[in-house]
């Protein structure tokens, strides 16, 4: 038994939680202290201090933390949570063959997600042996042959699923999708399906490109920034520097967040000596509104309604219009229909659905109107709802009213999650590829490739559940814990005949085994990648469409680990042979892959040379140039009615008990399904993850006190029971009727079929649930 096993709080049934209050500011000294703790914990502090100095710098590596862009100046380009991600990857702890000899899969299944990843890096390729119930070492070539054997036996290539998580490099993702398509399928479920999918769907339709229109520099020129449904203090800490700088320069920041997130209130830069060492901090939000879960579309509708009402008033008094009629006429379609829709939406409906008063929304609208240049940013609080596509299109509508797209300091900014999730999409991880893309690839490899739509995460899980899909290969990630409806997801994965995981650390996805399973250990961003032609670099694209090189500098922990590219190329060669693509040449020199990308995607022309520019190069954005590449060739005002009812109102009708809407979110000490620690410093939680945040009035109504233990049960239109138990009540500043709890512990509550309209994204921020008090004994 590892000595850690008994010391990790997750494993102690009497873990005591120290009650802490919410801090007055985010960042500052506490951030520095936490960074140092995680660096020391990695067991190689010297290496990781060197790593941090290279993070997000030229000739260094791209931080695997988030997709925020890099500043040009400054000595240090990392943040506390980036440091955690780096220290987590760059550790000397190993989950090696000895470890798997000691622990059976049945034993590992009983351990927490935290414990599994805590064991360290995967170092050798492994195959599951059902006779012994252990993972055992396998030779790399045998592993590749085994995958080829399964794939070539399938009666249709569409029986295989190729999942990608957004850490994969452009090069790995490109050859992965090339291999999948040459094998014959477009089944490319990816983490983005559970993340920003709605942004892509909405923006493609409205403005003809599925990406944000701003660059990092635009933040220096904005007069107002509207931040919708995101928690940058934890998830994009480097964005805090941009917000802090803008705020200090007089830019007005308006936050819409269901919770009062401390970093959006007051933030201290750990790089500013005064803010580091004294209680001083920068006020971030000038206006902070807390809508109900799923209430943002109504809130934005309210802002637009006020703008129209005021516009009418101004015009009737003979003054200038306050909306940008020139922009609207020249660049948009559907304005009249949208105008009518807004006029038809009552203030009563807006107030009821948003949970905000008309007066609050007028304040926000006035900030909007007074600003010449406005940026709107958003993340999961907007994208993980049933009506996310419509909500994002409402944000676009708002921006079109004043021509806040395509000018300096203004635009749309979906803040991406994984560090290269945007790049993965750009280079072809897409279950619905455009015919232009397939034609270009077909030309590249001189082989006909499929045009038909493939599976996203939702379709892939359904196909595995009904056994029409039989093989799943995952390039990174942890689909078992990241996907909704944990019981069904585990069943889906366990139905597979072969489950292949290309990973850095042990996780739940390695333990959902059907007939056969492989773990293929890869090197990460921080590590040296030496191939036949010498040291290699890979490339990534940030949320601002900047592409740059990333090169690790640490010796890999084991000589048996391979790069993701070598692994994908190895599988491809074993399955397809070398007739159309010389896979080994791609592994030998990644420049060759970049040349192939150049040939396929015009925006990557001269790829290898352009990487030499400091900071990389900008892929460009058509909408930012006021070119609209959608069907209508214009920016569209989208005309949607507000949802008639939000989910809980819908289910409440036939229920006596009060129902709540639950959002599932990240703590400060996790990276998606990777849990670094059990604290959530900015929300005053320590040593706990199984907690549920509730408004004091709601708690009183149910007779619940702080620290009482509850079972949470979700309500859905099937009769399947979805519950999690042993959750501790935390009284919190949260709108009545809403709850919050951490992901992935609450994923069992998210019904697989509860998905966004047209995005298929799990509605992780709106689940109808009820609470039941249980005996005050923790069930661990
Ligand atoms: N350290 C760290 N960094 C990360 C990640 C991580 O796990 N850890 N994950 C990465 C990934 S993949 C992603 S996608 C991003 C995620 O970044 P975020 O989107 O910031 O992540 P969440 O924790 O899901 O936070 C959602 C935020 O939206 C608010 N919210 C929820 N529902 C609503 C709503 O209906 N309306 C409004 N207005 N607000 C709402 C919540 O209160 C919370 O503040 O971060 C990336 N960066
Ligand atoms: N309830 C609920 N569910 C959610 C969300 C939510 O807010 N609520 N958020 C959703 C979102 S936004 C996302 S993006 C998904 C995340 O879904 P995923 O991307 O699938 O999950 P991660 O937790 O990021 O994956 C962690 C694993 O990736 C592997 N890994 C780490 N680095 C590397 C690397 O460099 N290469 C390779 N090959 N493997 C690596 C490690 O083995 C680690 O265990 O979860 C989604 N699920
Ligand atoms: Mo994400």
Automatic annotation (TrEMBL):
Belongs to the prokaryotic molybdopterin-containing oxidoreductase family. Residues 1-28 are annotated as: Disordered. The lineage of its organism: Bacteria, Pseudomonadati, Pseudomonadota, Gammaproteobacteria, Alteromonadales. Keywords: 4Fe-4S, Iron, Iron-sulfur, Metal-binding, Molybdenum, Oxidoreductase. Residues 7-16 have a biased composition (Low complexity). It holds the Pfam family Molydop_binding. Gene3D superfamilies: 2.40.40.20, 3.40.50.740, Dimethylsulfoxide Reductase, domain 2. Residues 660-717 form the Molybdopterin dinucleotide-binding domain. This is Oxidoreductase alpha (Molybdopterin) subunit. InterPro entries: Asp_de-COase-like_dom_sf (IPR009010), MopB_CT_YdeP (IPR037951), MoPterin_dinucl-bd_dom (IPR006657), Mopterin_OxRdtase (IPR006656), Mopterin_OxRdtse_a_bac (IPR010046), Prok_molybdopt-oxidoreductase (IPR050123), YdeP_MopB (IPR041953). Signal peptide: none annotated. Residues 121-501 form the Molybdopterin oxidoreductase domain. Its cofactor is Mo-bis(molybdopterin guanine dinucleotide); [4Fe-4S] cluster.
């Amino acid at each position: 038994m590892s000595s850690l096993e008994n010391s990790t709080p997750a494993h102690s049934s009497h873990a005591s939680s120290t009650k802490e209050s919410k801090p007055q500011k985010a960042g500052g000294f506490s951030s520095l202290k936490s960074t140092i703790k995680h660096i020391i914990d990695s067991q190689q502090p010297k290496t990781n201090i060197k790593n941090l100095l290279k993070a997000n710098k030229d000739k260094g590596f791209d931080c695997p933390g988030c997709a925020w862009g890099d500043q040009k100046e400054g000595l240090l380009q990392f943040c506390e949570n980036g440091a955690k991600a780096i220290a987590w990857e760059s550790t000397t702890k190993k989950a090696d063959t000895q470890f798997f000899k000691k622990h059976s899969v049945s034993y590992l299944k009983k351990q927490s997600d935290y414990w599994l990843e805590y064991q360290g890096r995967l170092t050798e390729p492994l195959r599951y042996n059902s006779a012994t119930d252990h993972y055992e070492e396998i030779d790399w070539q045998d592993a590749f042959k085994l995958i080829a054997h399964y794939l070539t036996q399938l009666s249709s290539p569409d029986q295989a699923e190729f999942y990608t998580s957004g850490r994969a490099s452009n090069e790995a993702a490109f050859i992965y999708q090339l291999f999948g398509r040459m094998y014959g399928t477009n089944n490319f479920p990816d983490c983005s399906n559970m993340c920003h999918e709605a942004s892509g769907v909405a923006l493609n339709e409205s403005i003809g490109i599925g990406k944000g229109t701003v660059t990092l520099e635009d933040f220096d020129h904005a007069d107002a920034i509207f931040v919708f449904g995101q928690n940058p203090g934890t998830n994009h800490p480097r964005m805090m520097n941009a917000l802090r700088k803008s705020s200090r320069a007089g830019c007005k920041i308006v936050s819409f967040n269901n919770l009062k997130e401390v970093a959006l209130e007051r933030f201290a830069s750990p790089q500013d000596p005064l803010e580091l060492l004294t209680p001083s901090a920068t006020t971030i939000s000038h206006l902070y509104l807390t809508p109900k879960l799923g209430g943002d579309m109504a809130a934005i509708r309210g802002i637009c309604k006020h703008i129209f009402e005021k516009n009418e008033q101004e015009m009737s008094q003979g003054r200038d219009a306050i909306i940008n009629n020139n922009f609207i006429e020249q660049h948009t379609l559907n304005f009249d229909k949208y105008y009518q829709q807004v006029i038809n939406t009552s203030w009563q409906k807006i107030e009821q659905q948003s949970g905000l008063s008309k007066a609050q929304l007028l304040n926000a609208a006035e900030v909007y109107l007074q600003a010449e240049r406005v940026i709107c940013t958003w993340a999961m609080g907007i994208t993980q709802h049933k009506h996310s596509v419509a909500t994002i299109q409402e944000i676009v509508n708002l921006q079109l009213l004043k021509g806040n797209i395509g000018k300096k300091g203004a635009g749309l900014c979906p803040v991406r999650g994984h560090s290269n999730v945007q790049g993965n999409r750009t280079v072809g991880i897409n279950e619905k590829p455009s015919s232009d893309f397939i034609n270009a690839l077909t030309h590249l490899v001189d082989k006909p490739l499929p045009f038909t739509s493939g599976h996203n995460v939702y379709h892939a899980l359904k196909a595995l559940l009904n056994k029409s899909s039989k093989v799943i290969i995952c390039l990174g990630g942890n689909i078992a814990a990241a996907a909704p409806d944990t019981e069904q997801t585990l069943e889906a994965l366990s139905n597979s005949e072969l489950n292949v995981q290309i990973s850095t650390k042990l996780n739940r996805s390695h333990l959902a085994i059907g007939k056969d399973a492989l773990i293929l250990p890869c090197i990460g961003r921080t590590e040296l990648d030496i191939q036949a032609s010498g040291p290699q670099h890979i490339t990534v694209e940030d949320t601002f469409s900047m592409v740059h090189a990333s090169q690790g500098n640490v010796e890999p922990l084991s000589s048996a680990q391979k790069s993701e590219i070598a692994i994908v190329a190895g599988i491809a060669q074993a399955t397809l042979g070398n007739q159309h693509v010389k896979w080994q040449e791609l592994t030998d020199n990644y420049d060759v892959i970049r040349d192939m990308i150049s040939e396929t995607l015009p925006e990557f022309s001269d790829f290898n040379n352009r990487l030499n520019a400091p900071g990389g190069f900008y892929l460009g954005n058509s909408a930012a140039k006021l070119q609209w590449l959608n069907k209508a060739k214009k920016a569209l005002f989208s005309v949607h009615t507000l949802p008639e009812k939000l989910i809980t109102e819908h289910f409440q009708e036939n229920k006596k008990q009060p129902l709540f809407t639950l959002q599932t979110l990240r703590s400060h000490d996790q990276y998606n399904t990777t849990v670094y620690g059990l604290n959530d410093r900015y929300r005053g939680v320590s040593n706990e993850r199984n907690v549920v945040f509730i408004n004091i009035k709601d708690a009183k109504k149910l007779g619940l006190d702080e620290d009482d233990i509850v079972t949470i049960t979700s309500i859905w239109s099937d009769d399947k029971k979805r519950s999690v138990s042993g959750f501790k009540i935390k009284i919190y500043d949260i709108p009545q009727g809403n709850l919050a709890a951490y992901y992935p512990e609450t994923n069992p509550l998210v019904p697989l079929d509860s998905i966004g309209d047209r995005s298929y994204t799990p509605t992780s921020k709106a689940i109808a649930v009820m609470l039941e008090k249980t005996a005050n004994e923790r069930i661990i």
